[in-house]
Amino acid sequence: MIVRIMGEGQLTLADSHFAELNKLDDELLAEMESGDGPGFRRTLTHLLDTVRELGEPLPDEALEPSELILPSPDATLEEVREMLSDDGLIPG
User: Fold this and answer.
1) FRET partner for 42 with CA separation of 20 to 30 A, picked from 9, 34, 70, 75?
2) Contacts of 88 (CB under 8 A, 6+ apart)
3) Contact at 8 Å (CB) between 4 and 72?
4) CB neighbours (10 Å) of residue 31?
5) Could you read off the pLDDT of 70-82 as tens digits, one per residue?
6) 23 to each of 40, 58, 60, 61, 64, how far by Cα in Å?
């Protein structure tokens, strides 16, 4: 799957990593619902770091359609809330 981190670029990520990412996504959603700003920031950072660690960056000149778009590391709680679906940032 091709994942875009807004403001950074795209990575290819194996589907086998999505269980781990969904767990972080669930934590992020709970922190957003409770208004836990510090927890939200910590979990968003961990989620993006995990995607960077597990993914393979695509070359800058590659323009592939992204199947998943994640917020930038400096996104606010309100900006991320606007990006959410019922499943969170990561479907499933």
Assistant:
1) 9
2) 22, 25, 26, 28, 29
3) no
4) 19
5) 999 999 988 888 8
6) 14, 25, 29, 32, 26
Is residue 32 within 8 A of residue 77, CB to CB? The reply is yes
Q: List Cα–Cα distances, 30 to 3, 24, 55, 67, 77, in angstroms.
A: 22, 10, 25, 23, 12
The helix-helix angle for 18-34 and 37-54 (nearest 10°) equals 160
> Taking every pair of C-alpha atoms in the chain, what is the biggest distance, in angstroms?
40
Q: Look up residue 5 and give its amino acid.
A: I
Q: In angstroms, how far is CA 60 from the centroid of its own chain?
A: 19
User: Global pTM?
Assistant: 0.88
> What is the distance between the alpha carbons of residues 59 and 81, in angstroms, rounded to a whole number?
29
Structure confidence at residue 71 (pLDDT):
94
Structure tokens at 7: 């403001």
User: 6 — phi, psi (to 5°)?
Assistant: -55, 130
